[in-house]
């Protein structure tokens, strides 16, 4: 298991994910929070999920845990996957 | 860590936001419909394939589609994409590439790896969609899916030998069921397949069979209505490997990487633009620091850098490219801030110049702003400014042109002249489906035309001018020798194109053979030379036995010289002599043909709203200054 991210890293990761959803799916960033269900976002489907994955990996410059990403149900779940990569640097 | 988009916070300074963020803002605020030129500029500024895909997704959604369609600034076109791998990024990438060109695609797709089944089962998805162009993107799984043992080199070699014939019968079925332009590609061999063999003899044997297969796939481009792209050339254009990363290959069944797919979508967009008659026709060239190094007005002719060592070699390379473009029908023009005499002396006297003043269809060396000069060159050559490509080393001149004449294509030259020729060549603005003999001599025809213009200025009245011009027209029935040119006239003529109907080569052949239409070309010659086949007509038969002019197109080189009146007069006479009760003519407005809305009424046709009828009782005299050649053919309905 990766170490838990700090609160600040977690918040930064949420912003990254919300930004990606806004850019790629034209979702309204003000309406998105960690508790938002991905299924409730317009146009969220397997193809767009993949676009979000590619976009996030490009932004972070590192691969995400694909199995955790694929199992994510909320914006917060994806943010946790992002924070596991971005928030643990010393 | 990225920051949130700043567009919403700073709407007054769009330059500060990324193009993608500005597009989102335009969409959110409902301003897409009123911002067509801005949308095109923003899309043109997007370089990163992921951003281009996101922009295409953004503008391809139903609401954005409606808004953009409502602006009437985009030509709608139905397309189809088939693929043997996952190609989800391609439709949005096509949307981005084509919207930047003023074309709004509606791209139908079929399920994963349905390319073969869709067509062989009668094109159930595509037929209703009626795509003008269908792109079928093939990867090596299309070959290997029928190989039982991928290590068995004998089997792979045999499969490679059989594949081109299989694609040919796929094209036969496509022609039967859909019948429009198909775009195929050579199939790259993936590392995961190639590296399976460990002995060099087998590696070489399979590679040879694979390359023979791709050569035979490229030969399919000899078929009508078929374009075959070289996958290597597409990948080479963006300096990217074609293959998807191994991760996306496994996660998403992607065969191709996003960079490649973006380059592929741009290339398909060029094909679509060419199919829609949007290939550019004219190159507008700056002189100082562009065609040569140095400033002739300051440095003198002898000091100009052309040819020899770099940077002279780079300027000469650009000239040589321009010369080769002109040999394929692209019109060359000069638009330079210089004194006319100084500029012409340099062009004609410097020993290393590839281009001389005789190579240019128009020459503007003065101190007027370039956007206005471009418009006056377009008027002189009777082309639209949207058919022009502007090449200038000065970013300020490029920016001015882009702002004042957004329809002119501005080449984004790199700072170093060594990249000038490549920047112009790789963009493919002049790409066409097929060249004809007319294209190869167009430059000479336009120079003769410039002579005619000078005569017009010296002749007293327009009728004297027309008499001195000694125009003769000859009607030719459609046949194998003129078919390609007639298809090209229907395909490329935008202004004098009365109904906007474009007939592809195979459609001409089919309808001529089944007797639903008769097609004709009209050759125009005058005292200054042969204008070649310059007009084309499609005649059909109405239910009441009357003749119907389905479409009538005339090259901009020859209209406004009464040629169009003479041709229509010949149709009316032929119809009357054949005992037809009437001739119907139609004008369907397009973006370019508005000035000919009253063409039929001016000939005595009655009617309104684009539907006209001539009862053939009183025919106007044929223009006295146009003579009619005999012996080649006469108009008739099918």
TrEMBL record, chain A:
Gene3D superfamilies: ACP-like
Transmembrane intervals: none
InterPro entries in the record: ACP-like_sf (IPR036736), PP-bd_ACP (IPR009081)
Signal peptide region: none
Superkingdom of origin: Bacteria
Domain Carrier positions: 8-86
Protein name (Swiss-Prot/TrEMBL): Carrier domain-containing protein
Annotated organism of origin: Streptomyces bungoensis
Automatic annotation (TrEMBL), chain B:
UniProt xrefs under InterPro entries: FkbH_domain, HAD-like_sf, HAD_sf, HAD_SF_ppase_IIIC, SGNH_hydro_sf
Gene3D superfamilies: HAD superfamily/HAD-like, SGNH hydrolase
Descriptive protein name: FkbH-like protein
Lineage of origin: Bacteria, Bacillati, Actinomycetota, Actinomycetes, Kitasatosporales
């Amino acid at each position: 298991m990766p170490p838990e991210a700090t609160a600040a890293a977690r918040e930064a990761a949420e912003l990254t994910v919300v930004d990606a959803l806004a850019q790629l799916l034209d979702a309204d960033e003000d309406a998105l929070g960690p508790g938002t269900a991905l299924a409730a976002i317009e146009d969220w489907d397997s193809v767009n999920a993949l676009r979000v994955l590619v976009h996030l990996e490009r932004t972070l410059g590192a691969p995400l845990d694909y199995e955790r990403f694929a199992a994510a149900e909320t914006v917060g779940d994806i943010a946790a996957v992002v924070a596991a990569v971005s928030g643990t640097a010393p | 860590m990225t920051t949130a988009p700043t567009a919403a916070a700073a709407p007054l300074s769009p330059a500060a936001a990324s193009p993608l963020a500005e597009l989102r803002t335009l969409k959110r605020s409902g301003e897409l419909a009123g911002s067509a030129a801005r949308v095109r500029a923003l899309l043109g500024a997007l370089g990163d394939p992921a951003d281009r895909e996101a922009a295409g997704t953004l503008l391809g959604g139903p609401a954005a589609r409606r808004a953009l369609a409502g602006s009437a600034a985009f030509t709608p076109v139905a397309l189809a994409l088939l693929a043997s791998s996952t190609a989800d990024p391609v439709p949005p990438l096509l949307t981005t590439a084509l919207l930047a060109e003023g074309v709004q695609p509606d791209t139908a797709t079929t399920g994963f790896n349905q390319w073969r089944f869709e067509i062989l089962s009668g094109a159930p998805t595509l037929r209703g969609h009626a795509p003008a162009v269908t792109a079928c993107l093939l990867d090596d799984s299309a070959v290997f899916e029928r190989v039982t043992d991928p290590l068995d080199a004998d089997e792979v070699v045999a499969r490679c030998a059989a594949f081109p014939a299989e694609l040919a019968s796929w094209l036969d079925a496509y022609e039967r069921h859909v019948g429009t332009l198909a775009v195929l590609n050579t199939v790259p061999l993936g590392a995961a397949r190639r590296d399976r063999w460990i002995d060099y003899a087998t590696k070489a044997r399979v590679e040879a069979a694979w390359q023979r297969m791709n050569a035979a796939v490229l030969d399919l481009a000899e078929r009508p209505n078929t374009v075959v792209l070289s996958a290597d050339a597409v990948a080479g254009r963006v300096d990217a490997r074609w293959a998807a990363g191994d991760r996306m290959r496994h996660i998403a069944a992607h065969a191709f990487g996003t960079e490649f797919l973006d380059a592929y979508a741009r290339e398909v967009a060029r094909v679509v633009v060419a199919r829609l008659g949007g290939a550019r026709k004219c190159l507008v060239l700056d002189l100082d620091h562009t065609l040569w190094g140095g400033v002739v007005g300051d440095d003198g002719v002898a000091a100009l850098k052309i040819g020899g060592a770099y940077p002279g070699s780079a300027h000469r390379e650009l000239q040589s490219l321009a010369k080769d473009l002109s040999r394929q029908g692209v019109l060359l023009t000069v638009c330079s801030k210089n004194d006319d005499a100084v500029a012409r002396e340099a062009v004609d006297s410097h020993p290393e110049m590839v281009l001389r003043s005789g190579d240019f269809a128009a020459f503007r060396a003065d101190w007027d702003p370039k956007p206005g000069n471009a418009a006056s060159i377009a008027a002189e050559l009777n082309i639209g400014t949207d058919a022009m490509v502007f090449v200038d080393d000065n970013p300020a001149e490029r920016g001015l042109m882009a702002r004042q004449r957004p329809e002119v294509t501005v080449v984004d030259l790199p700072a170093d002249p060594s990249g000038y020729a490549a920047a112009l060549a790789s963009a493919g603005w002049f790409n066409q489906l097929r060249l004809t003999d007319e294209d190869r001599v167009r430059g000479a025809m336009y120079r003769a035309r410039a002579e005619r213009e000078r005569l017009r200025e010296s002749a007293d009245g327009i009728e004297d001018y027309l008499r001195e011009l000694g125009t003769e027209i000859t009607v030719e029935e459609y046949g194998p020798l003129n078919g390609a040119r007639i298809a090209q006239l229907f395909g490329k003529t935008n202004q004098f194109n009365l109904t906007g109907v474009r007939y592809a080569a195979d459609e001409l052949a089919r309808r001529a053979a089944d007797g639903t239409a008769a097609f004709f070309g009209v050759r125009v010659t005058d005292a200054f030379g042969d204008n070649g086949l310059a007009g084309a007509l499609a005649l059909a038969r109405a239910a009441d036995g009357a003749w119907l002019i389905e479409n009538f197109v005339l090259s901009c080189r020859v209209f406004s010289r009464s040629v169009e009146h003479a041709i229509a007069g010949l149709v009316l006479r032929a119809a009357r002599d054949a005992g037809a009760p009437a001739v119907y003519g139609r004008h369907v407005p397009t973006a370019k043909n508005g000035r000919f809305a009253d063409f039929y009424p001016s000939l005595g046709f009655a009617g309104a709203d684009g539907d006209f009828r001539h009862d053939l009782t009183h025919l106007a005299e044929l223009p006295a200054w146009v003579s009619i050649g005999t012996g080649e053919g006469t108009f008739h309905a099918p």
